[in-house]
């Protein structure tokens, strides 16, 4: 079952467009949403949340129209920053936010305040980037949502909290059967925790696959430059040439290269390799 | 809805405190305060939109289970509550001041004066709230607000202060009579223009991108 479905969604702007975007977010898994900066990740998420309008297509949340505000009872949303009045404290925010959710869990809220070591009466403008992210997370998790949507949550965070955050998300998914949708251009985070990956570039969906499929289908091939000609170039999704050799991304069965086993190296491609080669094609 | 209203009050509490201090102070200092106070009261409008814009709050609010209609309605209600409350406070301070401060030269407000000021505020808010929703960029909105407001006040001053400009047509006389003698007309007029303005603002808000 899918909690989110995009059906041929398009949005046209002067300088940027999303075209015919169709994707799904399966229930009970962590889905990573990757793409370089400016590829349309935030735009797609904002359309999902009805913050941005789209020109064509349809978006469904939990089988309903994405415009239905009741859907948001089931969603915990974390932006890349904390968009709230900077003179507010966590206490002020709670007074406003908690009554909006039927499933607000005060005990869970207190538990996270303690766990994240957040001050209740300090003004938000005095918070560090990490504290702001923790505050966003605090409010997103305290109403026990079915779906957690996070837009670049790890950008600008120190490695220690980044890892803690990822562990927490994995724990939520396993223990509470929550669905997590996480956009990031830091692909190493997703290598660690994602079950599915959606890859977007310049507003166009490049693929949606499970991590198992990605690990099976994508490989980095390294070899001598003499092996590259017009025919072999066509085999690769992306190619990097240097003075002494080449690195290329191959999508398909790597058994094809078995005859060249001694002269090439075949490695499993990381998400970073895939993103790098698929967005650059030939370097 | 009440949580949205509480949020708006919390956001503007410092400005409210300034207003609470400024109104009695203007009487103690024997300064003609009506114009200043109206200007300060109308300052709430750009203030609330400025704070939203500066902190990108609409992005956050729109991600929560709140109807867009309630977001816009809360803005109208809070602005009307603040402006009406401030004018009632002005009236009560004016009454007390005229009892205890013999040096005051200006005549005291009647209830009808206050009703006219409330109507005037309602008309201003009805015109300018949709303007602040229309312009995504706050700088454009405040520029439009200030320029048009100055033009409006200047035009009014020129027309009313110029003895060569007279409006003695029967229709205008009748309208002036209604405005000055029929409190119900003022209340109905305020509510009608506020409702029309609210529908326009809502239409703008639900159709526009919040980023």
Tell me what you see in this structure.
- Chain B: This is ABC-2 transporter permease.
- Chain B: Pfam families: ABC2_membrane_5.
- Chain B: Keywords: Membrane, Transmembrane, Transmembrane helix.
- The complex is a heterodimer of chains A (283) and B (211).
- Chain A is of the alpha/beta class.
- Chain A has helices spanning 41-48, 90-97, 106-116, 129-141, 159-176, 187-193, 211-217, 230-233, 271-280, and strands at residues 2-12, 17-26, 30-34, 56-61, 64-65, 75-78, 147-151, 179-184, 196-201, 204-210, 218-224, 236-241, 245-251, 264-268.
- Chain A has a six-stranded mixed beta sheet with strand order 6-7-8-3-9-10, with helices on both faces.
- In chain A, a hairpin with a 2-residue loop joins strand 9 (196-201) and strand 10 (204-210).
- In chain A, helix 3 runs antiparallel to helix 4.
- Chain A is elongated and about 65 Å long.
- The two termini of chain A are 40 Å apart.
- Chain B is mostly helical.
- Chain B has one domain.
- Chain B is built from ten helices and no strands.
- The longest helix of chain B is centred in the middle third of the chain and has 33 residues, at 68-100.
- Chain B starts with a helix and ends with a helix.
- At the A-B interface, helix 2 of A face helix 1, helix 4 and helix 5 of B.
């Amino acid at each position: 079952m899918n909690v989110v479905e995009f059906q041929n969604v398009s949005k046209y702007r002067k300088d940027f467009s999303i075209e015919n975007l169709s994707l799904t977010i399966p229930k009970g898994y962590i889905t990573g949403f990757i793409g370089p900066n400016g590829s349309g990740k935030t735009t797609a998420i904002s359309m999902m949340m009805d913050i941005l309008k789209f020109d064509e297509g349809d978006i469904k949340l939990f089988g309903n129209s994405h415009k239905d505000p009741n859907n948001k009872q089931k969603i915990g949303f974390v932006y890349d920053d904390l968009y709230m009045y900077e003179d507010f404290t966590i206490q002020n925010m709670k007074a406003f936010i908690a009554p909006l959710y039927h499933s607000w869990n005060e005990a869970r809220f207190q538990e996270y305040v303690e766990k994240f070591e957040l001050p209740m009466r300090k003004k938000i403008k005095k918070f560090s980037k990490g504290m702001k992210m923790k505050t966003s997370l605090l409010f997103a998790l305290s109403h026990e949502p079915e779906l957690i949507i996070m837009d670049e949550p790890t950008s600008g965070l120190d490695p220690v909290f980044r890892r803690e955050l990822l562990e927490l998300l994995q724990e939520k998914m396993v223990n509470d059967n929550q669905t997590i949708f996480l956009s990031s251009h830091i692909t190493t985070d997703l290598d660690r925790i994602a079950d599915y990956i959606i890859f977007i570039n310049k507003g166009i969906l490049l693929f949606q696959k499970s991590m198992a499929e990605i690990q099976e289908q994508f490989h980095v091939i390294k070899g001598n430059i003499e092996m590259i000609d017009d025919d072999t170039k066509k085999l690769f999704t992306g190619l990097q040439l240097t003075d002494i050799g080449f690195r290329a991304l191959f999508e398909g069965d790597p058994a094809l290269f078995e005859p060249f086993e001694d002269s090439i190296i075949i490695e499993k491609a990381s998400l970073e390799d895939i993103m790098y080669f698929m967005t650059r094609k030939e370097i | 809805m009440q949580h949205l209203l509480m949020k708006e009050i919390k956001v503007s509490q410092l400005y409210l405190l300034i207003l609470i201090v400024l109104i009695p102070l203007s009487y103690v200092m024997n300064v003609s305060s009506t114009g200043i106070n109206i200007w300060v009261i109308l300052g709430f409008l750009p203030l609330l939109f400025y704070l939203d814009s500066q902190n990108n709050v609409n992005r956050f609010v729109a991600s929560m289970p709140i109807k867009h209609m309630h977001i816009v309605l809360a803005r109208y209600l809070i602005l009307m509550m603040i402006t009406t409350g401030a004018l009632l406070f002005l009236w009560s301070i004016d009454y007390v001041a005229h009892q205890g401060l013999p040096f005051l030269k200006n005549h005291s407000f009647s209830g009808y004066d206050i009703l006219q000021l409330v109507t005037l505020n309602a008309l201003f808010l009805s015109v300018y709230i949709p303007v602040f929703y229309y312009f995504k960029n706050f700088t454009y909105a405040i520029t439009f607000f200030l320029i048009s407001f100055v033009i409006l006040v200047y035009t009014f001053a020129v027309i009313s202060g110029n003895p060569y400009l007279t409006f003695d047509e029967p229709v205008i006389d009748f309208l002036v009579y209604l405005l000055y003698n029929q409190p119900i007309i003022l209340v109905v007029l305020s509510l009608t223009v506020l409702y029309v303005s609210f529908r326009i603002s809502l239409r703008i808000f639900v159709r526009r991108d919040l980023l």
